[in-house]
Design brief:
This protein is mainly alpha-helical. The protein contains 3 helices and no strands.
Length: about 50
């Protein structure tokens, strides 16, 4: 079964928020930080570290 990555991320994120209950400011900070890092000059460096 092939599940799109965006759908898997939404499901895992939803379950993580429901089960762990982190503060909403922390969720927003992580999402915004990831978006800003991906668009900066650090994006390729972080991508190569992950792969």
């Amino acid at each position: 079964m092939d599940v799109p990555l965006w759908l898997a991320l939404i499901v895992v994120g939803y379950l993580g928020i429901k089960l762990v209950r982190p503060p909403i400011w922390l969720v927003i900070l992580l999402l915004l930080g990831g978006y800003l890092i991906a668009g900066s000059f650090l994006g390729p460096a972080v991508g190569s570290l992950i792969n």
